[in-house]
């Protein structure tokens, strides 16, 4: 059964059109044959003998009448032939038009089938996508339910946490300047802050300097280590300068002149003497802490607090920095990577403070 709106062209429609054309041709043939018989009957009637009323007229009129009848018959036959040719031409044109319409209908049918197949494929793909979307929605609902159950379980197991006190912090402008004043050093390591008595360690090196100068009369460098100051000691190296041209020429053989030369501290490194050292943030900010007692001896106007900070102790440094800002101190920070010791040399850089 044909659906509404389809442009399908089948063999039944072609047979209907062809039957109609054959019927038209037969009707035309019958009409032409009837006309021909009518013309032949007229010719026979006109050729039958008539009574002669006037001998003179009877002798002349038959030839004239016969000529007229023949001409009339010829004209009628010619007209019938022309009509037959016209009908044949119309029939050929109808055949050509029918063939063109047939091709157009076949192309339309092919196009319809192509779009129908594409529509079927699109519909199948849409059904697959719809099924996938429904499956994903189901999984999402299950995940939301699982998340809600976990949140409820976590809320039931975790203790009630009191809200922190919110306080405003006021920072200095992010503009630093080199430090030329007295510095107080601290190490921030493993979330603990430890004072570094770098001034005392360097003072001990200066006290040992004459002894090392005697050793440098015949050597290029001398290494040593101080005693423990707090939680640290200082490892250092003093080198003799190549002052004369002979020292440069015979550097591999040793110093050329043991009497006149100059020397200086080339490198120092802070050595921790305790694995667990310093104070936590709570301990450092208490009134009786080492951190607070040390700062009580240093006026904020004359000193800079320099912190050597390792990555895991950045939160500790920020809290100490905030407290130091509120106390009126200028703060400098020197970040250090993991495993890097606190060290210095004459070619190093100065601290920059805010």
Run of helices and strands: HHEEEHHEEHEHHEHEEE
Radius of gyration: 62 Å
Mean pLDDT figure: 79
Distance between the termini: 92 Å
Q: How much of the polypeptide forms β-strand, as a percent range?
A: 15-25%
Structural class determined from secondary elements: alpha+beta
Instruction: Give the helix proportion (percent range).
Output: 40-55%
Low-confidence regions: 48-62
**Main sheet characteristics:** 4 strands, mixed
Q: Please tell me what the overall shape is.
A: rod-shaped
Quickly describe the structure.
By secondary structure, the protein is of the alpha+beta class.
Salient structural properties:
354 residues, 4-stranded mixed sheet
Structure description:
The chain contains 8 helices and 10 strands. The chain has helices at 11-47, 55-157, 198-207, 209-215, 245-249, 281-284, 290-296, 314-327; strands spanning 177-178, 182-189, 192-196, 221-225, 232-240, 263-272, 303-309, 330-335, 343-344, 352-353. The strands form 3 sheets. Strands 3-2-7-8 form a 4-stranded mixed beta sheet, with helices on one face. A 4-stranded antiparallel beta sheet has the order 4-5-6-9, with helices on one face. Strands 1-10 form a two-stranded antiparallel sheet. Helix 1 runs antiparallel to helix 2 (55-157). The relative contact order is 0.09.
Blueprint (SSEs and pairs):
Elements: H1 11-47, H2 55-157, E1 177-178, E2 182-189, E3 192-196, H3 198-207, H4 209-215, E4 221-225, E5 232-240, H5 245-249, E6 263-272, H6 281-284, H7 290-296, E7 303-309, H8 314-327, E8 330-335, E9 343-344, E10 352-353
Helix pairs in contact: 1-2
């Amino acid at each position: 059964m044909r659906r509404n709106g389809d442009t399908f062209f089948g063999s039944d429609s072609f047979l209907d059109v062809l039957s109609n054309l054959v019927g038209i041709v037969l009707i035309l043939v019958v009409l032409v044959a009837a006309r021909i018989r009518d013309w032949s009957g007229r010719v026979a009637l006109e050729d039958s003998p008539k009574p002669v009323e006037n001998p003179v007229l009877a002798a002349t009129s038959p030839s004239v009448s016969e000529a007229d009848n023949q001409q009339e018959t010829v004209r009628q036959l010619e007209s019938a032939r022309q009509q037959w040719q016209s009908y044949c031409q119309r029939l050929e044109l109808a055949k050509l038009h029918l063939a063109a319409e047939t091709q157009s209908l076949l192309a339309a049918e092919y196009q319809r089938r192509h779009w129908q197949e594409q529509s079927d494929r699109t519909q199948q793909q849409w059904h697959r996508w719809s099924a996938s979307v429904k499956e994903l929605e189901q999984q999402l609902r299950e995940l939301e339910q699982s998340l809600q159950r976990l949140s409820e379980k976590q809320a039931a197991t975790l203790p009630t946490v009191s809200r922190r006190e919110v306080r405003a912090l006021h920072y200095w402008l992010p503009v630093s300047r080199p430090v030329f004043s007295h510095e107080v050093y601290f190490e921030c390591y493993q979330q603990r802050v430890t004072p570094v008595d770098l001034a005392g360690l360097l003072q001990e090196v200066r006290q040992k300097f004459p002894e090392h100068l005697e050793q440098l009369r015949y050597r290029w460098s001398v290494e040593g280590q101080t005693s423990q100051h707090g939680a640290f000691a200082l490892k250092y190296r003093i080198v003799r300068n190549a002052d004369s041209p002979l020292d440069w020429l015979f550097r591999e053989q040793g110093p050329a002149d043991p009497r006149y030369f100059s020397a200086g501290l080339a490198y120092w490194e802070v050595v921790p003497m305790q694995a667990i050292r310093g104070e936590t943030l709570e301990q450092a900010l208490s009134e009786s802490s080492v951190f607070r007692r040390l700062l009580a001896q240093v006026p904020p106007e004359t000193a800079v607090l320099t912190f050597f900070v390792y990555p895991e102790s950045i939160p500790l440094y920020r809290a100490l920095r905030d407290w130091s800002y509120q106390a009126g101190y200028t703060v400098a920070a020197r970040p250090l990577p993991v495993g890097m010791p606190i060290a210095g040399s004459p070619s190093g850089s100065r601290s920059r403070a805010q």
